[in-house]
Design a protein that fits this description.
The structure holds 2 protein chains of 2 kinds.
Chain A (H helix, E strand, L loop, with lengths): L3 H4 L2 H6 L7 H15 L9 H6 L44 H30 L7 H41 L4 H15 L5 H26 L1
Chain B lengths: L9 H30 L6 H38 L4 H15 L5 H29 L17
Classes of the chains: A mainly alpha, B mainly alpha.
């Protein structure tokens, strides 16, 4: 990719010089100009001549971060760098803890919403009143979906958010990321989620969340390699 | 040329926006309903009341924010794909569809009004954003020099 778009393409730029208006008039013009000016205007270095120099805007010689030879890549980061905590490179390239948080929360929330919605949908299909008009049938299903979907989505989203915040905090404290961080973050997030319900529910929730974090660690490994 | 590299490309950014909006809503809802629950509880039960309010309402606020942000991002990507350009109208059109989609169960009039309100809101956001950009891009004003005294002849 040349930079000619910035300065106008080289052909149009050269057409503005008196030397190359058209092929037949060219020589006559040149000769008369040479006569009147006392030098050959075609030999003068002007902007269009500089722009036509081969290799001037060779993309390979530009700064490597410009990346002009490959177009815009999936993540063409200018200022932002990828997350450089050791071992933190996940499936989706992430720049920092906030990217981890957003993607993790969003994915788990959508999963919860989807599964809750599906569960609500089948519940709604079961509970359609007999002989009801179509509008009422549709409303029954939608009511069941919105009863189940957002509840499961919200709960799982909150757990995922807590998990990601704790996980990133542990990463920052320990200076690296490994499975122990994930498991510990899962345990803490699960415990915190049910912390108001008593010791036993807290323990159960903690164990479940640790298990989910462990499954995620395994899945990540499977997906990455 | 001026692509915003702090945001990811289109289909995947929906997930990011979903999570970001959800986190914003949930954390903001925790603060909001924490204070509200604290103030609305009798003395001696203020922290219990705050905790109960947060547990009951913060996830819902998060969910509402998340659904709005995710839907908006989805529509924004769709509009970008259809129009094949990036300008302020994308956000306005996406806001129109988002408002409409969220209110679609309330009937035709509600859907229409909500869509128009949402589009106007996004239009105002975009307009304010452009104005801010213009203010920030103001060139530095040349320093004012005192009037030159005529040279003594």
């Amino acid at each position: 990719m040349s930079m000619s778009w910035l300065f106008g393409s080289s052909s149009s730029a050269s057409s503005t010089t008196p030397a190359s208006t058209s092929s037949t008039n060219d020589n006559n013009n040149n000769d008369s100009l040479k006569q009147s000016l006392g030098f050959d205007p075609a030999q003068v270095t002007d902007v269009s001549n500089i722009l036509k120099t081969p290799g001037l805007f060779d993309s390979a010689r530009l700064h490597p971060l410009a990346g002009l030879d490959k177009g815009i890549e999936y993540l063409d980061l200018e200022d932002e760098q990828l997350n450089n905590v050791e071992g933190s490179q996940g499936i989706i390239p992430s720049r920092s803890w906030s990217d981890d948080l957003c993607y993790g929360t969003g994915a788990v929330y959508l999963l919860g919403l989807g599964f809750g919605g599906l569960y609500g949908a089948q519940e709604g299909f079961k509970n359609i009143p007999k002989g009801a008009p179509a509008k009422l049938q549709l409303n029954t299903i939608l009511n069941h979906i919105t009863k189940r979907g957002p509840f499961l989505g919200n709960s799982s989203g909150v757990i995922a958010m807590t998990y990601n915040i704790i996980d990133s905090t542990l990463d920052a404290i320990r200076g690296k990321h490994d499975d122990f961080n994930s498991l510990g973050a899962g345990a803490l997030a699960g415990a915190l989620f049910r912390s108001s319900a008593g010791i036993k529910p807290m323990f159960i929730s903690s164990v479940l969340a640790t298990g989910a974090a462990g499954i995620w660690c395994g899945a990540k490994r499977y997906l990455q390699y | 040329m001026s692509a915003d590299h702090t945001r990811d490309p289109c289909p995947i950014v929906i997930l990011n926006d979903f999570g970001g909006a959800f986190a914003m809503g949930a954390i903001g809802g925790t603060v909001w309903h924490g204070i509200k629950g604290f103030r609305n509880s009798p003395y001696g039960e203020r922290f219990i009341g705050a905790s109960a309010a947060v547990r009951a309402r913060a996830p819902v606020v998060g969910g509402n924010f998340g659904v709005w942000g995710g839907l908006f991002s989805t529509f924004d990507c769709t509009v970008k794909a259809v129009r094949k350009r990036e300008d302020a109208w994308n956000a306005v059109i996406a806001g129109f569809f988002t408002g409409g989609a969220l209110a679609i169960r309330g009937g035709w009039r509600h859907t229409r009004n909500s869509a128009i309100t949402c589009a106007c809101l996004l239009g105002v956001f975009e307009g304010v954003g452009m104005m801010m950009q213009r203010v920030m891009a103001q060139p530095a004003v040349a320093p004012v020099y005192p009037d030159e005294q005529p040279l003594a002849a």
